[in-house]
Write a structure and sequence with these properties.
single chain; flat; 461 residues; four-stranded antiparallel beta sheet
Length: 461
């Protein structure tokens, strides 16, 4: 490559990097400015949420790229020489490729596979945030004895980590198998498959890791099956499936030992026999055992168990109602969402959400409004207000209004959307206009941009 070509390549790469970084900056600033229309706390929460997603994606790409680069360099290290046929006149002359070119090629392939594998890791932030905070319902699962909160908070993160590990192992195994086949590390000679010792060590290490991954998957499968159940199953069915998973884990450990033995001693028949048995065991554990242990009749206490688990999950407590369920409060004419928003905006605050509800007092059902208000000038940043008489004025000193100060804001995807201010985002300055034009505000609604595809939930500590 000529010096001029190198300079052009460097300039082109720098331009691409600057465009990517500029786009990310525009997305971050646009979302932050729209969130600031709600409050400073909302702007900070949205910014931290987006940065967390980018950090996860960068970490996943970096780990995957380092993994693939290491394996590609291991292949390059075991190659004595790689030649390409070059035609000179009527003859083809083999020309050796320099080790430096092979190293650069290995690094480039590792970066490409790492980017493909780690892209999209930002979707892990919600499960990871939930697992980091922890969740406990106080209700154990019968087979494992673990709290149900483990299945809601920790299990999704375990599944993410397992899938990521399996993806790394399978792609690396496919990559080095292809490379060794191309370079002659794996070849057919005299009707037999011949594997070079260097290639066998490398392949054996990854095949052993793959067998270990199958065993880890066997350990996770009962937990995933419990999390995916739509209704309770008899204990005997769960016990049979648990035993099948344990048997598969034992088979995977045995095959891992066989794979390591093949890597050291080269007994190919032992390796093939072990993986054939492991494949049959996986089919039996995943399909045959669940089909044969499927209950013929529903569990007699299924409805009661589902009801009790739902009550524990959502914190529902039965309340004795003295009024008929179809009794409706009288229609009120003073307050609605529009009038409440207009009044709150006139007080220098922002109405985030207004939800109608009802309260039961004896045999009387009263209409109420539940409001969430953001204040930036004084007092707590957020307030939860319950208006118990929709026909009376909304005054601070009135006994019909209950106010709860909320000092913290939490982020939860999929929560009810909060309404931003009607003034929008300031466009003063060339930099702001460029960022807003480059950012996603032209495609998303202002509220969606402000929340960064998440919703803010305010609640008292």
């Amino acid at each position: 490559m000529t010096p001029r070509a190198r300079r052009l390549l460097a300039v082109g790469g720098a331009v691409v990097v600057l465009l990517i970084l500029g786009r990310l900056l525009a997305v971050l600033l646009t979302a932050r400015w729209w969130a600031a229309a709600i409050s400073d706390a909302a702007a900070q929460a949205v910014s931290e949420w987006m940065l967390l997603g980018w950090m996860l994606e960068l970490a996943a790409i970096a780990v995957a790229a380092a993994w693939f680069i290491a394996h590609a360099l291991w292949v390059v290290r075991g190659i004595a020489s790689v030649t390409l046929a070059q035609r000179v006149g009527e003859e083809e002359i083999p020309v050796a490729i320099s080790p430096r070119a092979l190293t650069l090629w290995a690094v480039g392939m590792g970066l490409l596979l790492g980017g493909m594998t780690g892209t999209g890791a930002r979707s892990w932030r919600a499960p990871i945030a939930l697992a980091w905070q922890g969740l406990r319902f106080g209700r154990p699962e019968p087979i494992s004895g673990a709290d149900l909160g483990t299945f809601v908070a920790q299990l999704p993160v375990w599944e993410i980590g397992y899938d990521y590990f399996v993806t790394l192992v399978v792609l690396a195994l496919a990559m080095i198998t292809l490379l060794y086949t191309i370079t002659g590390g794996i070849r057919r000679q005299g009707g037999q498959l011949v594997v070079h010792p260097h290639s066998r060590y490398h392949l054996g290490a990854l095949i052993t890791l793959l067998a270990i991954a199958v065993g880890v998957g066997a350990m996770l499968h009962p937990w995933l099956a419990v999390a995916a159940m739509q209704e309770p199953l008899p204990m005997v069915v769960l016990s049979v499936r648990e035993l099948a998973s344990q048997a598969l884990m034992g088979a995977a450990i045995a095959v891992a030992v066989m794979s390591a033995t093949w890597a050291l001693r080269g007994r190919t028949s032992l390796l093939l026999a072990g993986w054939i048995v492991l494949g049959a065991a996986m089919a039996v554990e995943r399909w045959l055992v669940p089909a044969m242990s499927e209950p013929t009749a529903p569990v007699a206490t299924a409805d009661a168990e589902i009801r009790a688990a739902t009550a524990d999950a959502w914190g529902l407590n039965p309340v004795a109602a003295t009024a008929a369920p179809d009794t409706l409060p009288p229609v009120t004419g003073r307050w609605d969402q529009t009038s409440l928003r207009r009044l709150v905006d006139g007080q220098g605050a922002t109405l985030l959400v207004a939800t109608p509800g009802r309260e039961l007092h004896g045999d009387t059902v009263s209409a109420v409004w539940h409001l969430a208000i953001a204040r930036s000038a004084r007092g707590p940043a957020f307030e939860a207000i319950t208006v118990r008489d929709a026909r009376a004025p909304l005054q601070d000193s009135s006994s019909i209004v209950t106010r709860i100060g909320l000092d913290r804001v939490r982020v939860r995807p999929g929560a009810p959307e909060w309404q931003a201010t009607a003034t929008g985002v300031s466009t003063s300055g060339v930099f702001r206009r460029v960022m807003l034009a480059w950012g996603p505000s032209g495609r998303w609604s202002p509220a969606a941009v402000a929340l960064g595809k998440c919703r803010l939930v305010a609640r008292p500590e």
